Amino acid sequence: MQGALGLFEISGHQTTFVVVRKVIFMAFSRKVWLVAMLFVLWCAHANCADDIRLLDDVSSWPTVLNSHTLVYANDQNLSAAEMYKLIENQEIEPINNKASQGFSNKLFWVLIRLSQPLPTAEDHLALELQNPHIDFTQLYKITHTGPELVGEGGDKIPFDKRSYNHRNFVFDLANEPATYLMLVDKRNAAVSFPLWLWPMKAFQDNELRYSVFFGFLFGVIFIVGLVSIALGFVTHQQTFSYYGLYALLLNLYIIVSTGYAFQYIYPHSASINNYARLLLVDFIAIASIQFTTSFLNTARIAPAIHRIFMVIRAAFVALFVLWLLFFNFFDHHVMWVLNVVYTLLLFNFVCMFAAAVKALNSNKSQALLFVSAFGALILSSLVYIMVEYGLIEETAFKINPFIIGSAVEILVLAIALIFRFQTILNERHSLQNAFFEVAELNDKIMLENESLRKLKRPAVQAVQANPTEKLPEQLLLKNKTVLALRSIIYISVNARYLEYYLADKQNPVIDRNTLKEIISLLPAENFIQIHRAFVVNINYIQKIKSNEVLLHGGLVVPMSRTYKEAVSTAFDRAQHVLSSLN
Predict the structure, then answer these.
(1) In what helix (H) or strand (E) does residue 23 lie, and over which residues does it extend?
(2) Hey, which of 122, 151, 335, 368 has its CA 20 to 30 A from 354?
(3) CA neighbor of 483 nearest in space, from 454, 503, 465
(4) Cα angle vertex 225, ends 219, 227, to 5°?
(5) Which of 132-146, 173-187, 209-223, 460-474 is least confident?
(6) CA torsion through residues 217, 223, 225, 231, sign
(7) What sign for the dihedral angle of Cα 50, 51, 53, 57?
(8) pLDDT in the model for residue 327
(9) Mean pLDDT of all residues in 415-423
(10) Cross-strand partners of 534
(11) Run of H or E including 280
(12) What is the pTM of this model?
């Protein structure tokens, strides 16, 4: 597999940053779906030959054997001799000879006939069963005395019991005419047994290249995950931490699904290998929901979709808990569990897409990157699920499509988080540049406050002169929510809604209204408009800068020049009243 690596530079200058971002967005938004559709069509038509014939000649390496074999299925635990006798006597009919048989509770037997020496100078061939998650497999050579065992393996037995030390199931064959019978046991699950025939030297060289490729892939994803978690701690933003956790879990799943985990991490524990993938899918789904809801801010932009996400997350958590409590039940009903998991994943994919569409209105750039990244993963996951159900032949791929989609997703999301981190750096740079302005303004305010202390208290005297006039203490919203005016820090406009940010709540209260109408209901002594989309409570203003207002608690709200003079006057008046009371 060859891949293209695009190099880009994040410049400190805003113009370069915007140009790079737009180029990436245009490339993804215009081409990703066209490529996706072509990818699906290719998968649907690749390796669909179902002719049954003997392997008389091989002109290219490696060779996919599935279309050259005869496949038999039965639900009885027969010996190789008993099965071959049924085949010889034509007492059992062959079934469709494709590699991906879908979900089944039957045993499969594959008959392979090499009618003459193959066109290679090597004395030995490698027969590879390219599925590291077969429960149990055996290869027999048919001799005049009956079937003789060539080798065996399975992911439910310790790794060192395999006849050949490899993450897949590999059998060393002599390059000579022979007939072989292979047992494939993957009952109560999706059955797939793609068979490849190699010259032994070519197989070993290819495996070395694959090991280098996968080692590089695992290392990159691992570094991306650790860096993201570190950025989460540095920036105090959970989005980075969620992504880092998601990347690490996804990396572990790829290591398990390719068979490297069983070979190098836990070779003596078949039980861990048997359940690792299912549990990791559960954890990955939960981590992806946490990242999606945080990255797209679904609680604000799409509350209904956010609630569905929470239900899906709860379902995955419940599956894990039930698996711990009723292990034996789940172990005997794996097909049922997998169907439930795949159904939840489909709902999760739909919600991801819907949330990204909603996010286009508030943050188009991040939404496009999200769709591009998870679009690749969703597409590859759907292809993989179709392979599991036997709708697409697994022999269409030299590498699991899920691995390709995951690698694309990790790369694109890393770019998205680089953009977000660049935005944070730019904001901090702006704050640093404004530091001296704030210091000067603070000194000026202190001098003015000192002067105002010598003045009389006109505002207090005005209130005392009209004691019957009382300011409202509460605000009734259209959604019947009652807010205490003293708890409102500021109000912002979001499309046709207003968001009320309160001192005693973490999330804003949202109500359908216009800023003009709400201003007419607020006491002018306490609230002032500082921007066409913002109204602030004067009592929470800490400092006024050139183009923004710093509120208590570290909140920063933009301020238009149109309102600057009025805001400064109102703030000075409030400071004067406060100093007079003191």
Answers:
(1) helix 14-45
(2) 335
(3) 503
(4) 100
(5) 460-474
(6) negative
(7) negative
(8) 80
(9) 73
(10) 492, 531
(11) helix 270-295
(12) 0.64
Q: How many CB atoms lie within 10 A of CB 217?
A: 19
Assess contact for 275 and 461: CB atoms under 8 A: no
Nearest CA to 369 out of 7, 13, 15, 32 is that of 32
* pLDDT bracket for residue 436 (50, 70, 90): low
Give the angle 517-491-356 at the CA atoms, nearest 5°: 105
User: Region 372-399: what's the mean pLDDT?
Assistant: 78
HEC string of 92-113 equals: CCCECCCCEEEEECCEEEEEEE
The tokens of 388 are what? 């599991």
Nearest to 10 by CA among 330, 424, 331, 327: 424
The length of the chain in residues reads: 582
What's the CA angle centered on 23, arms 19 and 27, to 5 degrees?
170
Backbone angles phi, psi at 349, to 5 degrees: -65, -45
Which residue pairs from 538-545 have beta carbons closer than 8 angstroms and sit at least 24 positions apart in sequence? 538/570, 538/571, 538/574, 539/486, 539/574, 540/489, 540/490, 540/503, 541/567, 541/571, 541/574, 543/438, 543/441, 543/442, 543/445, 544/441, 544/568, 544/571, 545/434, 545/437, 545/438, 545/441
**Terminal CA-to-CA distance of the chain, rounded, Å?**
75
Question: What are the helix (H) ranges across 46-104?
Answer: 80-88
Tokens representing 161 are: 């019991």
| Token code pair at residue 325 | 């409590």
What tokens does 131 get? 């599925």
What is the H or E stretch that residue 187 is in? none
For residue 462, what pLDDT is reported?
Answer: 41
User: What percent of the chain stands above pLDDT 70?
Assistant: 79
Gyration radius of the chain's alpha carbons: 33
Look at 33-47, 70-84, 142-156, 426-440 and tell me which has the smallest mean pLDDT. 33-47
User: Is residue 25 a contact partner of residue 365, using CB atoms and an 8 Å limit?
Assistant: yes
Within a 10 A sphere around the Cβ of 516, how many other Cβ atoms?
A: 8
d(CA 549, CA 556) in angstroms, rounded, equals: 6
Section 23-29 average pLDDT = 43
Between the alpha carbon of residue 150 and those of residues 79, 137, 179, 224, the distances in Å are: 14, 11, 12, 43
Place of tokens 């404004």: 434
Confidence check: pLDDT of 8 > 60: no
Between these two residues, 419 and 44, which has the higher pLDDT value?
Answer: 419
Q: Which two tokens stand for residue 351?
A: 């919600």
Distance CA 60, CA 197 (A): 10
- φ, ψ for residue 117 (rounded to 5)? -60, 140
d(CA 550, CA 545): 7
Average predicted confidence (pLDDT) for the chain: 79
Q: In terms of C-beta density within 10 A (0-12 exposed, 13-18 middle, 19 or more buried), how is residue 479 classed? A: exposed
